[in-house]
Amino acid sequence: MRYYGTTGKLGAGATADVLVLPAPVLDSLANDGKVRADSRTTFGTVVVSVVVKVGAPRPDISSKAKFRDAMLAARSVVHATPGKTPSGTHMGKVMEQLGIADAMAKKIILKPALDGGVQLVAAGQAEIGIYPASEVAGVEGLIIVGPLPAEINLEIVYGAAVATDSAAPNAASAFVKFMAAPENRFVWKEGGFEPPTNLNSN
């Protein structure tokens, strides 16, 4: 059985049995007939968090103003590319909202967490990283300082669905149900996810 957490390979013609993606992406795929709408299940939500290298000073991000100050004081900040991921797009908007986009332009490194971004922080090559909690949880060499202040954070809902053209739809459905089972929610929690508001979301 094949499952993906990205639409990139699908766009290149790859096939999958199960897709694990942000809920809006799954909804769009369901509307396009690419996944079975009746199989869609919500796993949990992820917020955007700030990380630093183990042993490095932890910036004060306790409020919107403090976060702004921390950004301006940092020598370098890495986050995903705006327009490429939900968190990257959100951070581009946050910098504009805080009025520091121009001041941060030379400090920002655009690199997805799973494409080397977290390694830059762990190696001390970037002072601060800003990524979804699920992408930094348990990464060696990093400390999660905490989530962005609520008024500028982003809550991303993740779920899964069975592909319409799955070669093993019954096994795929069973796998999705297994991943969403209440007794397995601790795994998602450990991975940086919070339980969904509606535990029966489908």
Topology:
Elements: E1 3-4, H1 8-11, E2 18-22, H2 23-31, E3 41-53, H3 64-73, E4 77-79, H4 86-97, H5 101-104, E5 108-110, H6 117-122, E6 128-132, H7 133-136, E7 142-147, E8 155-162, H8 169-180, H9 185-190
Parallel strand pairs: 1-2, 4-5, 4-6
Antiparallel strand pairs: 2-8, 3-6, 3-7, 3-8
Number of domains: 2
- Integer average pLDDT: 88
Termini separation comes to: 21 Å
Topology, number of strands: 8
**SSE pattern:** EHEHEHEHHEHEHEEHH
Instruction: Sum up the overall morphology in one term.
Output: elongated
Q: Helices and strands: which structural class? A: alpha/beta
Output the keywords.
202 residues; alpha/beta; D-Maltodextrin-Binding Protein, domain 2; eight-stranded mixed beta sheet; 9 helices; 33% helix; elongated; disordered N terminus
Give the structure's gist in a few sentences.
The protein is α/β, with parallel strands linked by helices and 202 residues long.
Task: Report on the architecture of this protein.
- There is one protein chain.
- The chain has 2 domains: 3-45 and 156-190, Periplasmic binding protein-like II (D-Maltodextrin-Binding Protein, domain 2, 3-Layer(aba) Sandwich); 46-152, Periplasmic binding protein-like II (D-Maltodextrin-Binding Protein, domain 2, 3-Layer(aba) Sandwich), CATH 3.40.190.
- The protein contains 9 helices and 8 strands.
- It has helices spanning 8-11, 23-31, 64-73, 86-97, 101-104, 117-122, 133-136, 169-180, 185-190; strands spanning 3-4, 18-22, 41-53, 77-79, 108-110, 128-132, 142-147, 155-162.
- It has 202 residues and is an alpha/beta fold.
- Strands 1, 2, 3, 4, 5, 6, 7 and 8 form an 8-stranded mixed beta sheet that branches.
- The protein is elongated, with a radius of gyration of 18 Å.
- The model is unreliable at 1-5 (pLDDT under 50).
